[in-house]
Description:
By secondary structure, the chain is an all-beta fold. The chain folds into five domains: 1-47 and 301-369, no CATH class; 58-300, YVTN repeat-like/Quinoprotein amine dehydrogenase (Methylamine Dehydrogenase, Chain H, 7 Propeller), CATH 2.130.10; 380-488, Immunoglobulins (Immunoglobulin-like), CATH 2.60.40.10; 499-580, Immunoglobulin-like (Sandwich); 588-675, Immunoglobulins (Immunoglobulin-like). It has no helices and 53 strands. The strands form 15 sheets. Strands 33, 34, 35, 37 and 38 form a five-stranded antiparallel beta sheet that branches. Strands 48, 49, 51, 52 and 53 form a five-stranded antiparallel beta sheet that branches. The protein is elongated, with a radius of gyration of 40 Å. 36% of the residues are buried.
Amino acid sequence: xxxxxxxxxxxxxxxxxxxxxxxxxxxxxxxxxxxxxxxxxxxxxxxxxxxxxxxxxxxxxxxxxxxxxxxxxxxxxxxxxxxxxxxxxxxxxxxxxxxxxxxxxxxxxxxxxxxxxxxxxxxxxxxxxxxxxxxxxxxxxxxxxxxxxxxxxxxxxxxxxxxxxxxxxxxxxxxxxxxxxxxxxxxxxxxxxxxxxxxxxxxxxxxxxxxxxxxxxxxxxxxxxxxxxxxxxxxxxxxxxxxxxxxxxxxxxxxxxxxxxxxxxxxxxxxxxxxxxxxxxxxxxxxxxxxxxxxxxxxxxxxxxxxxxxxxxxxxxxxxxxxxxxxxxxxxxxxxxxxxxxxxxxxxxxxxxxxxxxxxxxxxxxxxxxxxxxxxxxxxxxxxxxxxxxxxxxxxxxxxxxxxxxxxxxxxxxxxxxxxxxxxxxxxxxxxxxxxxxxxxxxxxxxxxxxxxxxxxxxxxxxxxxxxxxxxxxxxxxxxxxxxxxxxxxxxxxxxxxxxxxxxxxxxxxxxxxxxxxxxxxxxxxxxxxxxxxxxxxxxxxxxxxxxxxxxxxxxxxxxxxxxxxxxxxxxxxxxxxxxxxxxxxxxxxxxxxxxxxxxxxxxxxxxxxxxxxxxxxxxxxxxxxxxxxxxxxxxxxxxxxxxxxxxxxxxxxxxxxxxxxxxxxxxxxxxxxxxxxxxxxxxx
Length: 685
């Protein structure tokens, strides 16, 4: 007698493995959206909204961090490729943005994530098969509030550690297990068949020699999961298991040569039994043994197409387990196959249909830790009362702690700078984990660029990192106004005038090089020691020189200068006054070197320090009249004068002066007497 089948809207039919009909077939036609119990069933409640994530497209992961009594949620925004991590209460409430985990390159598929919590940290692997698009493995440390890249030193031929790019991670016993990554060496990084095991007491440390090879090279491991005392390893069409209690006796063995898993999230362990969805449908293995077909009561081989056969990406499916109901869900977009595990000898299936497409699920746990009460945020909040400028790059903020502390509350100080009146920068967490103590507190931030306008903000959190509802946003601009203030960082530096050069129509101030390129220099001038200062010019803070044209009426005036740093918001102290008289500066660095030219030609090499303007050269023989030699145009800095008479007792002097276009010139600069050597070219000219 054939078994009786009840037609269903989804899944091609439900066979009762009991044989002959026990229940009247007309009693129900569709086991959809129900919980199956002993001899009865209950309707499944609908989905309810727990938390929202403003500005995000999708929630792609929900994970418990049980040792901390909190949860973590991953979100994805398709337009930017950004994957963010939010921290929440143990039951997923009050999400607060921690930071960005990855920014996926353009053209990346919808992200799938493999995650596990080990030693108070949540490890996150990008479950991307195409290695060039796979992102680095990272971990979230709730105690520090940081998201850090996992860096490992696995190859002695490569200097320094490299960023790990595991395809998946899980915990087994006291170890962190990662797969799909070989080492930092080129050509050894994309190793899909490699499974690595961490140090038992430090998940951030991996010994290069502690790894397993699962099958053929290039055939990637898709998922690993503990089932009882073994670690089940599944590829696309075969399975293995790792047995042992430590790295000393770990061994890997094949368990199922024909069946693997479609995706890492389509496997789940209950006790020593591992349930997974293969390319042939649902299966189960116990303690790493060969797998058994679970599709008998779920007749997937029956003719006729089900909706599950045509989901856009079967690998995007995932498992969800309800321990209270003892139900294991295999979810594909809007549908779920539900395996009821209350009676292991008579497993039964039902179906769930959802009003929205689902992308992930997570099993969260209540915490009984010793920290503050989870889920309600800190019982205190700050009210800012003052701000100050202790030093040039420092800004202080003072606040009152309002409320009754429960103990363990912490404070954060955030800041952002404005480069101009319309463009604020990004908020930055300046100070973290400040113990809340007393009625009033002051904290000082450093590294603030002087002369710029800065916003400051303060918020409290519990010692598990939870913020009150009005403070959960990662944008302090939306926190209550009493938690924010503003100030301008003081400028105390004074620019120095190193030297002043003057030509007929140009004045040049030499400042030297400074690092504060966001500052400008305001140059003021005062003619003939008068009482009033006038604006001379503005120059960028990074400029080495400042110069401008001198009008003819000012050529014969003495000019005083002073300089200060300025921004759009404030100014610093003035420099000491520097004075420049009328006329051109004398040239400097005059040197005369008698020598031979062209082997036989006696002469002298005349050199000077190059400066703006032409240089006129004259010579004097034996204290006679000065004779013109040449005029060298800027930027020339030398002239070779030969041939010269080298008669007995003959000496030469040289003098030079700077000349501008027109009649202005500097004073002469004269050398000492020089005896020119005889070079074999004759006694005189």
